[in-house]
Amino acid sequence: MKRFLTIALLFGFTLISSQLMAQKFGYIDSEYILNKHPDYKIVQQELEKLSNAWKKEAQDLDAEIKEMYVQLKAEEVLLTEEMYQKRLGEIWEKEKQSQEFSSRIFGINGQYFQKQAELLQPLQSKIYDAIERVSRKNNLAVLFDKASVPSGIIYTDPRHDYSEFVLDELGIEDNN
């Protein structure tokens, strides 16, 4: 009985290892693919335009706060303690508004990141679909993304790089 169990285990291990050897693996560099895609440049320009407008608005708020401090300092000797505290409270309120604005726009779930996700989603879907088609055409069991953090990929052999196939699938020529 022990011999039969040993033979069965060896047979099972042989089947599993032969199946693992038959698996094809590859990788892509999604950052490389994104940078080659012409739509990505358009998205980046639109995001930069929005970002610059929001940064200017934040800078204007900060300049207004600085001006309020300068005026307060200049008029400090003329103000009663009550008037001084009232003006100081107005400045603090303006600083709070500035911080809330920055957080609402550039915070973790801010409008900038929401807009970025909204603009990139269609492009990412196109790329994902192309990756899926390339994987199926080349019978790949696993396709890693070299650009993902942390990827865990320490070394890659260029002959297993399918990034160019994805670019071809998207109809993008490599013009360097």
TrEMBL record:
Q: Which InterPro entries match?
A: Chaperone_Skp, Skp_dom_sf
Q: Which GO terms describe its biological process?
A: protein stabilization
Identify the domain of life. Answer: Bacteria
Q: Which UniProt keywords apply?
A: Signal
Sorted alphabetically, the Gene Ontology cellular component annotations on this record are: cytosol
Question: What range does the record give for the signal peptide?
Answer: 1-22
A Pfam family that this protein carries is OmpH
Keyword Signal attached = yes
Q: Which GO terms describe its molecular function?
A: unfolded protein binding
Protein family (similarity comment) = Belongs to the Skp family.
Protein name listed in UniProt: OmpH family outer membrane protein
- What is the species listed in this Swiss-Prot or TrEMBL entry? Algoriphagus kandeliae
